[in-house]
Amino acid sequence: MIDNRQSPTEKSRDQMLSGSAWMTAGSILSRFLGAVYIIPWGIWFGNDFFQANALYGLGYNIYSFFLIAAIAGIPSAIAKQVAHYNALNEYGVGVRLYKRGLVLAVFTGLICAVILYFGAPLIDGGDPNVIPVLHSLAWAILIIPTMSLTRGYFQGYQQMAPSAISQFVEQLARVAYMLLSAFIMMRVLHGSWISAVSQSTFAAFIGAVAGLLTLGAYYFRRREDFRQLVASSSNDIHVEAKQLYQEIIAQAVPFIILGAGITIFMLIDQFTFFKIMRMATNYNYATLSDLYAMFAVNSNKLIMITVSLASALAITAVPMLSEALTGGDNSEVRKQNSNVLALFMFVMIPAALGMAAIAGPLNRVFYGTSHQALGANILTFSSIIAIPMGLFVVISAVMQGLSQNKRAVKFFAVGTVVKFVLQWPCTYFLGSFGPLLSTGIGLTVANWLILRYLNRHFGFEKRMLDIAFRKISKYSLLMYLAALLTVVGLNQIVQLVGNPFGRVVSLMVTLAAVLVGGVIYLYLALKSRIADMILGPRSDKLRQLLRIA
């Protein structure tokens, strides 16, 4: 419980840490499940694994774009507007917003699902195997907008636990169905790998049903609390239904574009990579599919675990910034902006560098020894590109929380143009590394434009951020070196007694390196007191627990 004697800044930081903790836990557990399933899934697909994974990625990228269009940015818009009206003690308006949003969510979900299902032959990219995958994914789009909207409603009340837990339940149900269907079709029935992939993508519908039921249980358990808040509302503001729809749509459209930012970049890769590589090489389609799978699916699945840390921060930041802006507290806005960036650096930089350090054994754990060296190198490079990816997710959300939606879209458009311009030369000369490099540069340009604008119009606590960046970067590099040396050293030892490239041995090496690197980073952050700037009084408890002076 937050102490009423705390300053507004301390309360905001505690709310952000609490909310981020829930969202981070939910995101990481979900992403972890979404990555770990690939081990048995890949084994059951056997020699067809890389092609199956590439097909899965080709379908999922298109589905992700349609899903974002179906969701239409409504959940984040609802979270922002509900937080805005709650700050004015107008809880009744927030409830009406949610109900109007439900109508929009059902409508957009239905329209997008129909377009995806019947339009699949037109957007398959020339690969007919993608069509049944898109058909199976269309069913999920019917349900997920409603589920996401309900999560946004809870987030508007700063209640992050329902979102996090439903996210985990959704992923658990999805992965369970994926593995069960893949095992039955590939190992029991010895069926087509294309049909097995279609069932694996249909799992998104199964997961969505489970997630929605979880949210429904939470809502009915807390509906009396919501009713009491509505009953105690000021009721000084009356908003017509037409105006509510206008508010939702006006807020939602920029959320669509910015929420789809990384997906748009992935779609650019999907529809250009094969064409460019056919010009640059004489590789057959199977080889190109393997190369595409390595950077667009395999490594992406792992780096999105670290990017999910940024997503958790972003989801927490939007309603809080909206409240501060509604209250006209510019100093609080500046401090919250700084806290968001500092917390991002504290978790994202070491997470990205840590994954880069363990890329070799980690890649073998999930994807075996096929294309071992290239896959590890791509994962290393992808881990670094995850930093500008995560930063874009966070600061674009900050812009939305500060009602700078159109300007954020403009900056993203500039970054997209840069991506387009660099896509051909980067891919032609660098192969699988090229799309990653063009993505990194494009997002870096967009990030620079957004940060420059935030600095000019809202400001940052520059001294705090400068100290945080220098120390976090230094400690992260030390952690990276320690983890990398652990990997190299253990590989040398294992080579003397057995196979260093087996999955079990690679997992042990990975865990050892993570433990060594994590302990070093945590010790340095607590010892230097840099953790205090991010975590506040919680750092003292950690120091006492770990006996760090």
UniProtKB/TrEMBL annotation:
It comes from the Bacteria. It is a multi-pass membrane protein. GO terms for cellular component: plasma membrane. The chain crosses the membrane at residues 21-40, 60-79, 100-120, 132-154, 175-196, 202-220, 248-268, 302-321, 341-362, 374-399, 411-430, 436-454, 475-498, 504-524. Keywords: Cell membrane, Membrane, Transmembrane, Transmembrane helix. It is found in: Cell membrane. Pfam families: Polysacc_synt. This is Transporter. The lineage of its organism: Bacteria, Bacillati, Bacillota, Bacilli, Lactobacillales.
